[in-house]
Amino acid sequence: MSFVAILMGSDSDWPVMQxxxxxxxxxxxxxxxxxxxxxxxxxxxxxxVADAASRGCQVFVCAAGxxxxxxxxxxxxxxxxxxxxxxxxxxLSGFDALLSTVQMPGGIPVATVAVGKAGARNAGYLAxxxxxIADPALAERVAADREANRxxxxxxNEALQATL
Length: 164
Known about the structure:
By secondary structure, the chain is of the alpha/beta class. The protein has six helices and five strands, in the order E-H-E-H-E-H-E-H-E-H-H.
């Protein structure tokens, strides 16, 4: 079974990371969600990454909170794609998490999306697009979702033009 693993350093990241789950559910992609800290449970995190990969995890999506090390810690333990989602928290509103997530050393990549819920949604879409390379049915669902979003914008524009 192929799936996406979503990891958060604490449950306070869940309100943002729910957006990733919503996208994966809408596209009918199997997923798991775990709280696993790079600092407080480093051995458990490494063990989960190895176990998940052995069970078919194809992509890891990691919340990057104020310490912003989870995505990098996960990437250090796998060659599967890792997507980091900077959480909009703390005194710098996620800017620190963004910088920490994008500045990985050469050879240990972490794809990084926008800060906050928009980034969490895009992490779901990016994971879906990665999986869709080898899954034509998923590729069709991703394309249909993109077209539905296009149609929403066209209808909004029509409604706006009607009021002018």
